[in-house]
What we know:
Shape: elongated
Helix content: 40-55%
CATH architecture of the largest domain: Irregular
Distance between the termini: 19 Å
Number of strands: 5
Amino acid sequence: xxxxxxxxxxxxxxxxEKHGMSKKDATALLDDMVGSFVDHLKDGERVxxxxxxxxxxKQMKARTGRNxxxxxxIQIPAKKKxxxxxxxxxxxxxx
Length: 95
């Protein structure tokens, strides 16, 4: 059975209650935070969040793959991906 999913809206509601602010303000703040992360990643910068980890864009090289249905060799093009490296504090807290 899959673990329940917590949404940004639910986190915003928790933060609003904890810090005495409106849900609308907390949601706007979190939306702006996510938008800021995206902007920095687009600019090629790493985003370090103490206690959580590091987000960064990595360039993947082109490579040869195989179609699992037909066994045919295919060329997989180079692409970018967002990588997340977990902070030691989070890893120690969860594991």
